[in-house]
Specification:
This protein has about 300 residues and is α/β, with parallel strands linked by helices. The chain contains twelve helices and 14 strands. Helix content is about 40%, strand content about 25%. The longest helix is centred in the C-terminal third of the chain and has 19 residues.
């Protein structure tokens, strides 16, 4: 992999309180931009664009810096950091939101500097489509590859804005339930084709423990199985870790092909599987490239077995 690979992520930085069947944890460093950055930094240099409040801990900034993540684009504002409390007790894959306090994230509206605007690889995490649109319109690299994530709330309340920003991006990351909601369909293939008609050249539909699907504008498809974990501890951040692994890998390639995107899905799957075997970012923070490569190899072996 090349040494000058770089990816930028725009998203939430938060503190999470979690309730799972494996126990409860409070004040965990989280947010989409955090999970993405720590997942991607094993393979690429990462710049994180987000907002934190006066209560954000110095040790957490130092944690990010220890992973060589560029934190100079984190905005420090008066107020409190975004806080979220969720429970997985009734559903191990979809959380029940108990408390949401947006804090300074409510007014988050970054102005990108020239270096970020020139980024070739950018991930717009789960934020308002209006903000995603503003950021995507400011990007100027002609070879840019922009990924976007979304959620049910934006699909239901801001679908037109979401469709507008989708015209400017390359890859949409979306889970199966969201894809069905967006396309008003019960078919993964039909949903993906509907999404691609809206602009993205690639649609990646995540289906939790069942794996993930890649659909390309030219009708090429790819299925990546999930990694068989020993025990699910905390699903928080799985999708953002997947995207981080995906972009961490692909950012090493100047002009990626469809085969490269397939490989990136395997890396994303491997890293996400490590994330969910621990609370918060605990496992993610401590992984090595060898840990990732070991799981990548096992997923590839699984793919070989399934094609026989």
């Amino acid at each position: 992999m090349k040494n000058n690979s770089q990816v930028s992520v725009v998203g939430s930085i938060a503190y999470d309180d979690l309730v799972t069947s494996e126990g409860s944890k409070n004040d965990l460093l989280g947010g989409s931009a955090i999970y993405f950055s720590i997942a991607a930094c094993n393979m690429s240099k990462v710049s994180i664009i987000g907002s934190v409040g006066e209560d954000f801990k110095k040790k957490d900034l130092e944690l990010l810096e220890s992973k060589q993540i560029n934190i100079k684009h984190i905005n420090h504002s008066k107020g409190t950091t975004f806080r979220w409390k969720g429970s997985y007790v009734n559903n191990s894959e979809e959380p029940e939101t108990l408390i949401t306090n947006l804090g300074v994230f409510k007014d988050f509206s970054p102005c990108l500097n020239e270096d970020i605007k020139k980024s070739q690889y950018v991930f717009l995490a789960n934020i308002s489509p209006l903000l995603q649109k503003k950021i995507s319109k400011s990007l100027i690299n002609p070879k840019r590859i922009v990924g976007l994530d979304t959620m049910n709330h934006w699909i239901l309340d801001m679908k037109e804005d979401l469709e507008f920003v989708m015209k400017d991006i390359n890859i949409l990351f979306i889970n199966k339930i969201e894809a069905f909601l967006f396309a008003k369909s019960k078919s993964i293939e039909d949903s993906a084709n509907y999404i691609i008609e809206k602009g993205p050249k690639i649609c990646i539909i995540k289906d939790g423990k069942n794996g993930s699907y890649l659909y390309v504008k030219n009708n090429e498809t790819f299925f990546c199985p999930s990694y068989k974990i020993d025990k699910l501890i905390d699903p928080t951040g799985a999708g953002d870790s997947f995207a981080g692994g995906f972009f961490g890998y692909i950012s090493n390639i100047n002009e990626p092909t469809i085969e490269d995107f397939k490989e990136a899905m395997i890396y994303g799957t491997a890293i996400a599987s490590i994330t969910i075997e621990g609370f918060g970012i605990n496992n993610l923070y401590n992984i090595s490239k060898n840990d990732i490569c070991k799981r990548v190899k096992e997923i590839k072996n699984q793919l070989i077995m399934e094609t026989k």
